[in-house]
Write a structure and sequence with these properties.
alpha+beta, seven-stranded parallel β-sheet, 28 strands, 17% helix
């Protein structure tokens, strides 16, 4: 059985989907970011006062309040004892003491008191997963955009994939400086020297020799001539491109290592070679092949062929890999039909991945069905007859039309591009918690996915994978919340025609995640309320739709309470009410809104 790389093909037979390069995107001026991030300068609003153990203020809130009032009178500032911290220190709100001089005067007053052991500013801390300085990162909407992206940056606070090897079972490796440091030796499993184009059969060199076809029909009836795809190199960039190196793109699991295992050459690859590659990549024994010194804990297979059943040779190899602790990720296929007719997408013990667009819809080419487990960005480099390279998945590539030439970056579309997003996430999870089994990794990814904001006919699994939510879930970010009361914002925000506005609420002091019955109280004054689309925006950027627009809803105002299942969101942070006016002729304002935890 032949298998081919499953980027979107311009044509397909019943057995082979032909790879076709997407239209290159225009090359804009370089958008290099500052290598070193500058943290915000936040005003000091509170101080932490530690009293000596022998004093009444050390244990008595009444005494601490009294002392705070004394310091307020002495400095002329509106100070207030707020609460006792763990370990005993008192948190004192500075009120209107906003200048450096005023703050210094307050702290000096406390320091001069013999009952005080120490006083220090209540300073701010910030996530250290700063925006990567890779020059093309701005094109990687699939990592960070809230609508169609996979919410990756927040996961980098906890894990980058360190210590995990990801095997890319594909076309092999085209040398690329944005991959080299994260690439470890792999293997060439193409047993046919003709298909391998390297003059021999299997060997230890996983170099991509090109998968071009010179003429139509060369690879069977219906096959088309085409250039080399450098498909494995594109897949590898999404998973593990070197990050924060002031060039190119960022990889999802940029702390992981990528191992190229070559199985696809001229006219695709055979199931016998692919099955052996799965076994070897995961640390199993293959006759005549040296043992893999760095077995993979994640395997990506962005390949497939037509078959109504999973071949036994595939299923046995996959079962063996999973038993050795490897998570196997497979692309669903690009034929806009049920994925059950394609393999290894229809095998058991895998994560089957469909593709979504930048708008959060199922990509027009993506396979679907009940066997799809989850979706991830695969992009769309065209919309109808319009070329949209900016909506593809941008990654590492090579400019050669047949054999390797200069390295470059290009956008591709396909379930082949969606699968490595999940493989990268699996590597993040395995790195964050090494005891996770492949089944636990699959469950975590599926249960923390978010619903598609767009449409999916036929079945797209549990939704678009969310990297930050999933990593938080496996590292203890889903603790039971402590009731935190109600938070409100009554500052009016004008809603003009055809604009999007937000109103923010900073939530603090709530332990764990938000509840599954988060109450969102909304009071919006607006004529013809059908013009409005209203979303709750969680601290990590996830959107929860509260209200859609309606051309037939001519009533005034939106006043009511919505219930949101926000149990996967950390409660503390800045929540926003986002209101979008989609029509002209009627305006209004956000009067007030609130959250009840």
């Amino acid at each position: 059985m032949a298998a081919s790389a499953t980027i979107l093909g311009v044509a397909a037979t019943s057995s082979v989907a032909l790879a076709a390069q997407a239209t290159p995107s225009p090359q804009p001026a370089s958008q290099a970011l500052t290598p070193a991030a500058t943290l915000p300068t936040a005003p000091v609003e509170k101080v932490i006062v530690t009293y000596k153990a022998s004093t009444a203020e050390a244990t008595s809130n009444a005494a601490a309040k009294s002392d705070t009032a004394e310091k307020a009178a002495k400095t002329g500032e509106k100070l207030a004892f707020e609460r006792r911290l763990a370990g005993g220190p008192a948190l004192v709100d500075l009120g209107t003491a906003t200048s450096k001089q005023d703050i210094a005067a307050v702290m000096d007053a406390f320091r001069a008191d013999p009952a005080v052991a120490s006083v220090e500013a209540d300073i701010r801390a910030y996530p250290m997963a700063v925006t990567p300085n890779d020059t093309e990162y701005a094109k990687q909407w699939d990592l960070f955009e809230p609508t169609g992206g996979m919410n990756v940056p927040g996961a980098w606070d906890k894990t980058t994939g360190s210590g995990v090897t990801v095997a890319v079972i594909d076309t092999g490796y085209a040398a690329h400086s944005d991959l080299a440091a994260n690439t470890i030796p792999g293997y060439d499993f193409i047993s046919s020297s003709t298909d391998a184009r390297d003059g021999n059969g299997r060997d230890s060199d996983a170099k991509d020799e090109g998968d071009w076809n010179a003429t139509d029909g060369e690879c069977g009836v219906g096959s088309r001539a085409g250039n080399s795809s450098w498909h494995g190199t594109h897949v590898a960039g999404t998973i593990g491109a070197v990050t924060n190196n002031a060039k190119g793109i960022a990889g999802i699991a940029y702390g992981a290592k990528v191992q190229h295992v070559r199985v696809l050459g001229k006219c695709g690859g055979s199931s016998s070679d692919i099955a052996d590659a799965i076994t070897w990549a995961s640390g199993g024994s293959v006759p005549g092949v040296p043992a893999n010194p760095t077995p993979a804990k994640v395997i990506n297979m962005s390949l497939g062929g037509a078959s109504s059943t999973c071949p036994t040779v595939y299923q046995n190899a996959i079962n063996g890999a999973v038993s050795r602790g490897a998570t196997v990720v497979v692309a669903a296929g690009n034929s806009n039909t049920n994925a059950s007719g394609f393999t290894p997408a229809n095998c058991s013990n895998i994560i089957n991945v469909a593709s979504t667009s930048r708008e959060g819809n199922r990509s027009y080419y993506s396979n679907y069905g009940s066997i799809v487990d989850v979706s991830a960005p695969g992009g769309e480099t065209r919309s109808g007859t319009t070329s949209t390279p900016q909506n593809g998945i941008y990654s590492t590539l090579n400019s050669g039309t047949t054999v390797q030439s200069l390295e470059n970056y290009q956008p591709y579309q396909g379930t082949s591009m969606a699968a490595p997003h999940i493989a990268g996430l699996a590597a993040l999870l395995k790195s964050a918690k090494s005891t996770l089994t492949p089944a636990e990794i699959e469950t975590a990814i599926k249960s923390n996915a978010r619903p598609l904001p767009g449409t999916c006919t036929g079945g797209c699994g549990t939704g678009i994978a969310d990297a930050t939510k999933t990593v938080n879930a496996v590292t203890g970010g889903t603790t039971t919340p402590t009731p935190g009361g109600t938070f409100t914002n009554a500052t009016n925000v004008t809603i003009s025609d055809n604009t999007t506005v937000t109103s923010a609420i900073a939530v603090t002091g709530v332990t764990g995640n938000a509840p599954s019955t988060l109450q969102v109280d909304v009071d919006i004054k607006h004529t013809w309320r059908g013009d409005l689309v209203i979303d709750l925006v969680a601290p990590d950027g996830t959107l929860y739709r509260l209200k859609n627009s309606s051309g037939s809803d001519s009533a005034d105002n939106v006043i009511g309470t919505y219930t949101v299942n926000a149990s996967s969101e950390v409660a503390n942070g800045t929540w926003k009410l986002q209101v979008r006016d989609v029509a002209s002729g009627d305006t209004g304002y956000i009067d007030s809104w609130g959250l009840t935890f």
